[in-house]
């Protein structure tokens, strides 16, 4: 246990978050996502896990992880197949955690399912959650922490 660190952030996840640099992506995915196969193509090379719902995992990650404010696609969600404009409850929940962490409204773009798989393969790491609802898949691009 570490003081001030969300206990959902296990050692492997903390290591990956600390090792990532500005512009690196991480993906948070649900239990149905092909996480192992996709993670093998990432920089990390293996699946990391936070066995909680997607919004809880996102909140823990965002407690230490800044989002990239220099780009328009630093927060992304997987589109619902056949209904790209639909935003599901799990996606609303993660959006709320992003805005809470950033302290302001923050845009989240949508990415078509297969394009999301391709973005995930280029990510630094894949964090699979215990989320069982469909479309609990998100990409977050790391930003910077300015000097004091």
From TrEMBL:
UniProt entry tagged with the keyword Calcium: no
| Keyword Isomerase (UniProt) | yes
What is one process in the GO biological process aspect for this record? Answer: fucose metabolic process
For this protein, the record's Pfam families field holds:
RbsD_FucU
Entries under SUPFAM superfamilies matching the protein? RbsD-like
The reaction(s) this protein catalyses: alpha-L-fucose = beta-L-fucose; beta-D-ribopyranose = beta-D-ribofuranose
UniProt keywords, alphabetically: Isomerase
One molecular function GO term is: fucose binding
- From the Swiss-Prot or TrEMBL record, give the protein name: RbsD/FucU family protein
